[in-house]
Amino acid sequence: MSYRSLDYQVKDRVATVTFTRPDTLNSLTFEVYCELERLAWDLEADEAVRVLVITGTGRGFCSGGDVHEIIGELFKRDVKGMLAFTRMTGAVVRNLRMLEKPVIAAINGICAGAGAVLALAADFRIFSDRARFALLFTKVGLTGAIWGPPTSCPGSSASARPPSS
Q1: Euclidean distance between CA atoms 135 and 112, whole angstroms
Q2: Using CA atoms, how far apart are residues 44 and 21, in angstroms rounded to an integer?
Q3: Rounded distance between C-alpha atoms, residue 17 and residue 19, angstroms
Q4: What are the structural domains of the chain?
Q5: Which of 68, 72, 112, 132 is deepest in the core (most CB within 10 A)?
Q6: What is the mean pLDDT of the chain?
Q7: Which ranges of the chain does DSSP label H, i.e. alpha helix?
């Protein structure tokens, strides 16, 4: 499998997908979304892979939708265009959740907006000491999107960090 906007490596039956836009804290583009949607389908049939790890390069896991390529573009779309985008992003989360292989989000830094949704769609989340979450949907006019993240993490309300004493 090859992807133009993601780094994809397989070693010891572990597939690692790395977001590779550190200059934008690994913000998402339409191309990244399309490739993530395809990724889960590709992995489902790949018997050489037993687990998927998703991470980012540099200081961020994923800062969400790129301000210019996605957020700016969404303001120009009509209802049909917004619906198409919503369906595509929903398909990415659905495909990750339905993948019959464990998905691990290795959160190495900022994890915001749609990046946080992707992390919450994983089966497991591992946080570095630099990991930070931010749900910023209302800042870009997506008030309904705030309801998705809490339901993306069924049966889990615990942090990976130990409780403070």
Answers
A1: 6
A2: 26
A3: 7
A4: 6-148 (3.90.226.10)
A5: 112
A6: 84
A7: 30-44, 73-74, 79-98, 114-121, 148-151
* 104 to 28, 118, 122, 127, 139: CA distances (angstroms): 18, 10, 6, 11, 28
Which residues, other chains included, contact 97 with Cβ-Cβ below 8 Å and sequence gap of 6+?
121, 152
The per-residue pLDDT for range 128-139, each reduced to its tens digit, is 999 998 876 655
Whole-number Å distance between alpha carbons of 106 and 43: 18
Torsion of CA 118, 121, 127, 131, to 10 degrees: 30
Asked if 103 and 52 count as a contact pair (C-beta separation under 8 A), the reply is yes
**Greater confidence, 52 or 159?**
52
CB atoms within 10 A of CB 145: 18
Question: Which tokens belong to 94?
Answer: 């659905």
- In single-letter form, the type of residue at position 50 comes to R
CA distance 5 to 25: 14
Give which of 137, 158, 157, 156 is closest to 147, Cα–Cα.
137
Over the stretch 103-129, which tens digit does the pLDDT of each residue have? 999 999 999 988 998 999 999 999 999
In Å, the largest CA–CA distance within the chain is 51
SS3 state of residue 19: strand
